[in-house]
Amino acid sequence: MLRVIDFILSFLGLVIGFPVLLIIYIIGLFDTGSPLFVQERVGRKKKPFKLVKFRTMDVATKSVASHLASSASITKTGAFLRKTKLDELPQLWNVVWGDMSLVGPRPNLFNQEELIQERSGLDVYDARPGITGLAQINDIDMSTPKLLAETDSNMLKNLTLQKYFYYILATVIGKGAGDRVNSDK
Predict the structure, then answer these.
(1) Nearest CA among 125, 56, 54, 123 for reference residue 90
(2) Is the separation of the CB atoms in 131 and 100 below 8 Å?
(3) Using CA of residue 121, residue 123, residue 128, residue 134, what is the dihedral sign?
(4) How far apart are CA 67 and CA 181, in angstroms?
(5) pLDDT of 29-86, one tens digit each?
(6) Distance CA 49, CA 138 (A)
(7) Which of 53, 119, 129, 135 could lock 151 by a disulfide, CB 3.0 to 4.6 Å apart?
């Protein structure tokens, strides 16, 4: 049932949000020259998929987890997109195609071995990764692999339709700060 809801909401989001997506895309052309960011991530059953987001960092930025990237690499437009979480909108395509859910554990990179080990032990990869979830609205990110894996596992075990909509609503109204970046670099 959640897959059907995911599909309908994401499809509607893409249709209704098309003007916003187009404007952000055009602004991104002027900001970085390459407005979309595509990166291979770990999906359900540990299968790879291509995650799509709006680019928030310089094109030359090394492909690492956000908490390992330098804040100096975030563009001015990117900072706004991250703060408002508009950089996540293209992931609605990932939800429509079935690679992701609206609610689930955030998909990690294949080189995040500690997180993969923690999540594997808790069967987190049995679920589709999501755009948002319990960890995201509580500012828990990939810099704390054990806590993130435990939070994801608890969310999945206790996920109800009511909580599903709560996580989406909490994200839309701005709860949670998004992925951290290293300000020391």
Answers:
(1) 54
(2) yes
(3) negative
(4) 4
(5) 999 999 999 999 999 999 999 999 999 988 877 665 555 556 778 899 999 998 888 9
(6) 26
(7) 135
Cβ(3)–Cβ(98) under 8 Å?
Answer: yes
Q: Are 107 and 41 in contact (CB under 8 A)?
A: yes
Whats the size of the chain, residue-wise? 185
Q: Which residue shows structure tokens 């608890």?
A: 154
Q: 86-123 burial by CB neighbour count: b if 16+ within 10 A, else e?
A: bbbbbbbbbbbeebbbbbbbbbbbeebeebbebbeebe
The DSSP bridge pattern shows strands 48-54 and 101-103 to be unpaired
List pLDDT tens digits, range 148-176: 999 999 999 999 999 999 999 999 888 87
Give the C-alpha distances (Å, rounded to integers) separating 124 from 21, 67, 97: 31, 21, 20
Contacts of 148 (CB under 8 A, 6+ apart): 105, 115, 118, 135, 140, 141, 142
Token digits of residue 23: 């404007």
Distance from CA of residue 64 to its chain's centroid?
14
Q: Per-residue pLDDT tens for 125-149?
A: 999 999 999 999 999 999 999 999 9
DSSP character string of 100-136: -EEESPPPPPTT-HHHHHHHHHTTGGGS--EEE-HHH
